[in-house]
Amino acid sequence: MSILEKLQHRVHQGQNIHYTDNPRYSEGIERISKQEKSGIVMLGDSHISTGEWRGWANQGIGNDSTAGVLNRIDLVKRVSPHTCFIQIGINDVERGVAEGRIIANISTICKNLLDAGIRVGLMGIFRVHPFYPNASQINMKVIAINDRLEKIKGIQFIPIHLPSNMYLGDYIHFTPAGYDHIINRLNETLFVWKPKR
Question: Of 51, 132, 160, 164, whose CB has the highest number of CB atoms within 10 Å?
Answer without folding.
Answer: 51
